[in-house]
Amino acid sequence: MFSNKTEFKELFLRRLELLHGKPFSDSSLREQYETLGNMVREYISEKWISTNEKYRSHHQKQVYYLSIEFLLGKLLGQNLLNLGIKDIVEEGLSELGVSLFDLENMEEDAGLGNGGLGRLAACFLDSLASLNLPGHGMGIRYKHGLFEQKIVDGYQVELPEQWLKYGNVWEIRKADEAVEVAYWGKVETSFENERLVFRHVDAEKILAVPYDIPIAGFQTDTVNTLRLWSAEPLPNVSCQDVLKYKRNTEIVSEFLYPDDTHEEGKILRLKQQYFLVSASLQSIVSSYRKLNKSMKDFHHHVAIHINDTHPVLAIPELMRIFIDQEGMGWDEAWEITTKTISYTNHTTLAEALEKWPIHIFKPLLPRIYMIVEEINERFCRDLWDIFPGEWDRITNMAIIAHGVIKMAHLAIVGSYSVNGVAKIHSEILKQREMRQFFEIFPEKFNNKTNGITHRRWLLKANPELSRLITDVIGSNWVYKPEQLMELKRHAYDPAIKEKFLQVKQTRKQILANIIYEQNGIKVDEHSIFDVQVKRLHEYKRQLLNVFHIMYLYNRIKEDSSFTIYPRTFIFGAKASPGYYYAKKVIKLINSLADKVNEDPFVSQMIKVIFLENYRVSLAEKIFPAADVSEQISTASKEASGTGNMKFMMNGALTLGTLDGANIEILEEVGEDNIFIFGLKAEEVLNYYENGGYRSTEYYHHDPRIRKVIDQLMNGFFPDVEDEFEPIYDSLLSHNDQYFVLRDFASYVEAQEKVEKAYQNQSSWLEKAIINIAHSGYFSSDRTIQEYAKDIWNISPVRNTL
Ligand SMILES: *Cc1c(COP(=O)(O)O)cnc(C)c1O
């Protein structure tokens, strides 16, 4: 390959000509990007092959992380960084007159996820490889990832995302490892050689073709695999309507479902879930077979993790393979399956818990349904032994009841580990949502607080801050992020504070330029950058943020002596296309932005910016520039959050409720270095259980609230007459289920504290540095080491070339 700048340049020029059949001087940026991408993938390939050989020969336990989403973002920059060849490449290209930055921008984000859950999976892959752990991802190669968002007249418009339009340099199609996935048809049962045999006949089969993407660890020779499955028609299928068959097949991996908090119950989604699971398990079992070990030892060599319930059919599918293909009896198959599979719960929102109606499930997956039924019957029988006569309890806990299959129940019963994603979330699971399961399987429940890879979210996204940290404490933190704590000793050093300020200023200027390019608005780069970026959802309460800004607007208009420290409120959020209410909030943010930014007086103090198409690559520009991190979900609703961790790691201070990992951020940094407000989870849950909240009281008794709410309806926003009526109704007629009005006063007060604290620049900088120092705990390296030790029982395999 290449080991210095000169070799790189020579190879680059030669590869470009071979690949594109033209001289460098005639080549486009895209052709240059493709050339570089191919070179980097080939550079990785040597290590990839040797890692795989090592895994095969060492027979060490491997983990497979099954996830319906992987929100990877761009890969070129991360690969260059992890391989340690960024400087060679950057300098080499620069001598050819090419900017690496421009080439990185040619890559499309791999947006194969909605938000937190998919990004978590991507961070985990980076940590697994960087820690030399034998762990691989398996997912779906959606032809179209999450939609591209455009804002037109303040409304969200969705465009199909086209990340594969120019191909994908990182993937390798492995047609010879394709497997078949079977739907529909029926199950024939017969008695052969003294045992029951099940045959799935008249099935409609499709081909699952794997595309492998190498996942290179940071400064190590370990390269793991992300295997994404693509749905294709089987060759030589004889059927009446070939075109229809092709269409019905390819549609399975065509679109990512653009919602992670509502279960739609669509048959295509179930097809996708089984597609992922069946293809992945066949592939895992077939690799295991090549080791020539007994199937009885499967769980000693393989761990399979399911990221939320979307891949929960891994449980009956593994049973099917063991029983129908390996000839095992039920009890043995069940023992091995339940020692192989572990499960992460991501939410307690009732509307997000997956339930599949039997009338959809049973015809599509007849053999899988039989197995789920058998699991359910045996489980209910066990329950009867423990709780004889307690019909209600047994019906509540059953996997199948009232015509639906409860996927979370199947996940708990069929796995050996059930974890939540932050301390409070795991406690709510044990004490409330899953209490009855905790009572009978206490040993299964545990917590693994989420994390983020500091390599993407600090080292790559914020090179200026990374250099400063290394100047101050040396570079060990890069390998051991907990050593960021060394920074704490320097938090009070004026020279270091000054340098931190300069870095933050640089990053704010970069974001200000992006805002100007995209929105045509000049923001004051010395104002407080107050940021809320995340999916748009009622429970995340972008509305509370909006109401505070409306209140500030009103204050400024009413009282000419009222002044505030300049602030730029920045939003980024996609709403699920079918989520009517969330789209209203997007329109409201944009209407407010117009109102504020166009007012010559108000806009001297505050501005409101909505950045369209929030995604990983844009996020990498936003977090480094933030001063204030808005984490204002209704307490108990945000299982963990990971955006909160990215902000903290980049020196923004959290303004948040006691929800999800905010609580652990508070425990880390202490109450002087975070701004907490609002109802506690206990209080929210008690209101839900016992009533006692009346939103209209807050409307009537707080004139600030009344004014803001009235403005939704009284023509304050021109040309949008009834637009915000649904928001008005949800707050007053439907009693404000997310406690926006209840938490308003407390939020305003916290915002005033933020403003005051920011004006003491010296002390603000200390707080920011302390936040960075404590952010090491939230590296996904810590999270993954906990999974490896407590759940998966895997250990590092060193690959030395
Ligand atoms: C981190 C991240 C998320 C998750 O953000 P939360 O604030 O935890 O909801 C969503 N989308 C993108 C692009 C991210 O990078």
TrEMBL record:
<keyword id="KW-0328">Glycosyltransferase</keyword>
<keyword id="KW-0808">Transferase</keyword>
<comment type="similarity">
    <text>Belongs to the glycogen phosphorylase family.</text>
</comment>
<keyword id="KW-0119">Carbohydrate metabolism</keyword>
<dbReference type="InterPro" id="IPR011833">
    <property type="entry name" value="Glycg_phsphrylas"/>
</dbReference>
<protein>
    <recommendedName>
        <fullName>Alpha-1,4 glucan phosphorylase</fullName>
        <ecNumber>2.4.1.1</ecNumber>
    </recommendedName>
</protein>
<comment type="function">
    <text>Allosteric enzyme that catalyzes the rate-limiting step in glycogen catabolism, the phosphorolytic cleavage of glycogen to produce glucose-1-phosphate, and plays a central role in maintaining cellular and organismal glucose homeostasis.</text>
</comment>
<dbReference type="InterPro" id="IPR035090">
    <property type="entry name" value="Pyridoxal_P_attach_site"/>
</dbReference>
<comment type="function">
    <text>Phosphorylase is an important allosteric enzyme in carbohydrate metabolism. Enzymes from different sources differ in their regulatory mechanisms and in their natural substrates. However, all known phosphorylases share catalytic and structural properties.</text>
</comment>
<dbReference type="InterPro" id="IPR000811">
    <property type="entry name" value="Glyco_trans_35"/>
</dbReference>
<dbReference type="Pfam" id="PF00343">
    <property type="entry name" value="Phosphorylase"/>
</dbReference>
<keyword id="KW-0663">Pyridoxal phosphate</keyword>
<dbReference type="GO" id="GO:0004645">
    <property type="term" value="F:1,4-alpha-oligoglucan phosphorylase activity"/>
</dbReference>
